[in-house]
Amino acid sequence: MVVAAAGIGIILAFLALYPTAMLFYGSVSDAPLGVPGHLTLAHYRAAYGDPNTYRMIGNSFVFAAGAAAISLVVAGLLAWITVRTDAPGRALFELVAVVPNVLPPLLTATAWVLLLSPRIGLINVVARRVGLPPFNVYSMPGMIFVEGLILAPLAYLIISAALRSMDPSLEEAARIAGSHPLQAARRVTTPMIRPALLAAGLLNFVRALESFDTPSIIAIPARIEVFTTKVAREALTAYPPNHNLAATYAMSLLGIAMVLVYVYRRLTARTERFVTISGRGYRPHAIELGPWQYVASAGAILLLALIVLLPFCVLLLTSLLPFYSVPTWETVRQLTLKHYAFLLTSDRVARALRISTMLAVAGATLGMLLASAVACLTVRTRVAGRGALELLTFIPWAFPGTALAIGLLWGYVRLPVPIYATVWILLIAYVTRFLPYGLRAMTSTMVQVHTDLEEVSRVCGAGLLHTFRRVLFPLLRPGFMAGWTILATIFMREFSTSLFLYTPRSEPVGPLLYHLWIDGLHGRMAALGVVVSLVSVVLVAGARRASRTQLAD
Amino acid sequence: MRGLTYRAALAGIAGVMLLALAVPAAQGQADLIGAAKREGRVVVYGSMESDVFAVIQKIFEGQYGIPVDYFRASSNGVMDRVLTESRAGKPLYDAVLTNRSPMMILKTQGVFGRYVSPSYGSYPSATRDPDDVLSPSYRQVVVSILYNTRLVKAEDAPKSLADLLDPKWKGKIVMPDPNVHTTTAVWLANLEPVMGAQYRPFVERLAGQVTLVESFLPVVQKVIVGEFPLGITYVKYVYIFGSEGAPLDYVRLSPLLAEAHHVALSAKAPHPNAARLFVDVFTSRLGLLALAKAGEFVLVPGVYPPIKDAEKLRIVLMDDLSEQELKQFRDQVGTLFLKR
């Protein structure tokens, strides 16, 4: 056990600390990385001597907290309806809810601008017709709303996994004691899945802090400065780019994220409170809503319209038009499949799809195996330093994608192993950056499973491996598959880290989408977005099927 | 008769001389092609749109069968990547092509090698780099006001930059944020000598009229979809997107400011011969004609892109900004655009 812990510890420490050390060094060096320099605090003075920095931090916190809150409400409601009730169509809803995770945030944000731009936004056009005032997406509420919807699918996957692993007998007890289903949901279900809610909220808060997609599309026109737009302006588009200053800002984000992880650990320290799967007979059972089931389905459809259907329709329309414009009858005559024809004939597209599918499958599997091992060590054992293990996984994730890429680039470009400029550096980058998503899905499920089941297995003479395979893993499978799904869908279209690390010969889907975007080829970009969504849905459906077949065994 | 013989003799001498010159040149060229083919590929980093680059790529690959790997990024992204790889001691690029200002920075950082392509001889001498590092300007990207022809009639469109300040355009103009987008900063800074005393009041009021985005492409996209009727961006988009059906036209400002683009070879090119051959083709008359056909303004007399009135425009090349000048610009003018 100690050897295993040490091995995993070394792997994690290398993955996390090596690029971090590079970034830290960059933040206190007066020369660009790779050039010998002297130690200095000048970058910290430049970053924090500016009074605007503090207003920017305020904006960033409002933005991130608002977006995380919206994502939790949307995801929590949707997860409860699809997992815990008998609302009709819930299996389909579950599959649809994964789609937006697949859409690059850049595309979703662009789609929302086309829905909510003051002059031409479709929703605003309709609103004006019925005499309602238009909603201006170029504002802080607009940013929060769009980012909240972009983050909701991730929260959905974490919360729904926790709901699926929950012992429903407590809810039943509440019902028998006379509670209404909604009351039971509020008083019993919510506290039981609190670790998952907190985890999802925390992950999304930091993700919003470091996101550049929504800010670049909405904050720049709205002239609202947040963390990432300031970093872009002062460091990345400086002249020449100033990686040292970018590293300095990245270090601040790391500090904020570490405080939040500490708070999270304090809040979930008494894990026993949340144990809900024990030896007492565990059978998932849906809440019967009676006539309310149709209301619940309608609610789910409304939520899905916000997080998937509306932006996806805009994307689909963009992919079918030479140039997007507010749809009229004229639009029908312009419909074309030429962007899809481009996808079929382009070698570049075929190669990118091949590379990204490989990265998604291999990366998600590797990532989840590592996450399971870490979760097992941190939740199930009393090995010294297990808290540090978990902290290690969070370090790289606390950096914005671009900053981490700088650290990785500088780290791996120096290694004697030829990793730089291959797909392997992308694989390492993805696993390094997104491990916490896998780990959260895994630990929040694992803390719910009581150790007595394993103990029974051990008492009956089963070995550690056998116990893991026959008892623990089947119970944890919802968490594992949820984590796998999150990772695979993110890896399928990741771009902010990839952009710094790929080469033309190892170009994955994310950078390709980005390049179609910066080349102004929105039709092709939308068509590729639609295709990638379909590929990811197939991946997710395959994963679900595999997980169910194994359960039947 | 005598005259005829004389002329024939002269022609003969000239012919022999040409042959004498041509043989080593042809031999050198054959050696270069052979060496390039043995290197097997060429890697180019640049900010030229992928579809436009593909035109040259097709010519080069068709002629020599050597594949071109093209890494496309914004001009800033190209500069960043080139600097990072060079400092790490792992430059993977053979040739770099982007706007003048970042190319000048890269030149001073010493990442490029010297190269004079045989095709440089046909360029105006004023555009040649005295240090033989950067190529002459192979294209000029021209900036103007573009408008959506479905929303703005030609007679209602602004006629000058000053017309942008008309209250009727407030909130209806989109342009890149000069604090994030370098070419826009260079463009605004170059307006100062053009506008003289009018400059400061102009930029102060312009900052309050416009909505900002990241770069020139989001500008033209927003104009095409009708989110904003007017945008400040590249004139060539009128052809590139207009030929696909986008409702675009541009304001014939006089003068129109343009930024030069250059190409240069890496000092440590992994495929140096293929890179030279690529630059030869890229900057050749054949290459420039192909670029012009794809919508680019090039320095070949009498050759224009298929953009209406392209031959009538008075185009002035902008001065590049040094690191210090850009910082000063952002402090003095850029901050105007940050105010809400």
Automatic annotation (TrEMBL), chain A:
Ranges for domain ABC transmembrane type-1 come to: 57-264, 353-543
Membrane-spanning regions, if any? Answer: 6-25, 61-83, 95-116, 137-159, 246-264, 301-324, 355-379, 391-413, 419-439, 479-501, 521-541
Write the record's keywords in alphabetical order, separated by commas.
Cell inner membrane, Cell membrane, Membrane, Transmembrane, Transmembrane helix, Transport
Which domain of life does the UniProt lineage start with?
Bacteria
Compartment(s): Cell inner membrane; Cell membrane
**What Gene Ontology cellular component terms go with this record?**
plasma membrane
**Family indicated by similarity:** Belongs to the binding-protein-dependent transport system permease family.
| Name recorded for this polypeptide | Iron ABC transporter permease
Origin species: Candidatus Segetimicrobium genomatis
From TrEMBL, chain B:
Q: Which Gene3D superfamilies match?
A: Periplasmic binding protein-like II
Write down the Pfam families for this protein, in alphabetical order. Answer: SBP_bac_6
Say yes or no: keyword Signal present.
Answer: yes
Is the Kinase keyword given for this protein?
A: no
- Which key words are in the record? Signal
> So which residues are the signal peptide here?
1-25
What is this protein identified as?
Answer: Extracellular solute-binding protein
Organism lineage string: Bacteria, Bacillati, Candidatus Sysuimicrobiota, Candidatus Sysuimicrobiia, Candidatus Sysuimicrobiales
